């Protein structure tokens, strides 16, 4: 009796029974493909061609012994769990079941434990994921103690060729701005560049500092379309080389410069300062210090625009900094050193440094759609991505992009643009009294071909 219970045939029979019972509770659009080739729908309308393939009983045993998100990602990255279908985003969207825990309560825990008991002793062949950051995550450390350059270079070691597989023509690695939800990614990212320049109120021959300038899209857009003199800071050698080559290609050497420098070491004096999607990567404890550095390089009444990913505030502040499993995984496999605060903390830091906050605009759903585009574009280039970074890193990135998109779509993640001006003394801000300047066409010769879009 006992040996029969643990036979391969008995395990499969038990698992089929479990999946049938789960399918009665769920209304999922996916199916489960087992190692014997059988396909088990998880709902009456499940697509048999949209499957989660389980490659061996050891996968079930591993998840039963260690039912953590980290273990699930390890099994997926190593190929022991495989998504079969159009792309991971489509799979995840169809796999989601509302109130899943409530529905699973209909299944007897005792019955479930008995059916799955034979898998507990099945050995798993998956090895630890190699594509992970080897050092400390840097959470809670001051800027002086953080290995910011190591964090950035780990993230961008994937290489410019890899990012070109899924980013837009301008290589914008931040939230697009969709004038229409059906707009292309390229159009949305050009819209983001233009609305950002308009919020800053850029004028010809003003000086602009871009802190964490990425691949230089905003630097070049502001110089070409608004006539400013722009300078960028990055900690990525590969980004630096890309921006320098782009500046030469566009003939902007007299307008755009870039250097490899930590944001906490910024110097000079500028009319406008911008930072898109960088401040969340310095750690919550260091945001106020970074804001003070930005104060130091801005002229009086100069404009500062920050765009950041964040979370919603908690009723009890002491609970806010507890890291959720998904946040720890992102720091481990994708972006070490990253930590998400809330927009209120940033506004408080700005006001404490005598910035006057003028505008806080949420773009959450814009980022959900941006990430959907990124994930599907990367999936369409799967073979080349694997050639460039390996299958493990490709799968980790797919999980990251899809998970972030769903997080923004649900509202657990948020993104804001926060506009403020520096005030050394009391008096007028110098800002326009309305938002008309965001929508009025630019003067001839400076206008973007798509700037007439109503944002």
Keyword list:
455 residues; alpha/beta; Rossmann fold; 2 domains; seven-stranded mixed sheet; 15% strand; elongated; disordered C terminus
Structural features, described:
The protein is α/β, with parallel strands linked by helices and 455 residues long. The protein is 42% helix and 15% strand. It has helices at residues 2-5, 8-25, 57-65, 69-77, 88-95, 100-104, 109-116, 148-156, 160-164, 185-200, 217-226, 237-250, 287-297, 325-333, 343-352, 364-380, 382-389, 391-410, and strands at 31-33, 39-41, 51-54, 81-84, 207-211, 229-234, 256-260, 270-276, 298-310, 355-362, 414-422. A seven-stranded mixed beta sheet has the order 7-6-5-8-9-11-10, with helices on both faces. A four-stranded mixed beta sheet has the order 2-1-3-4. It is elongated. It starts with a helix and ends in a 33-residue tail after the last strand.
In brief, what are we looking at here?
With 455 residues, the chain is α/β, with parallel strands linked by helices. It contains 18 helices and eleven strands.
Layout: helices, strands, pairs:
Blueprint: H1 2-5, H2 8-25, E1 31-33, E2 39-41, E3 51-54, H3 57-65, H4 69-77, E4 81-84, H5 88-95, H6 100-104, H7 109-116, H8 148-156, H9 160-164, H10 185-200, E5 207-211, H11 217-226, E6 229-234, H12 237-250, E7 256-260, E8 270-276, H13 287-297, E9 298-310, H14 325-333, H15 343-352, E10 355-362, H16 364-380, H17 382-389, H18 391-410, E11 414-422
Parallel strand pairs: 1-3, 5-6, 5-8, 6-7, 8-9
Antiparallel strand pairs: 1-2, 3-4, 9-11, 10-11
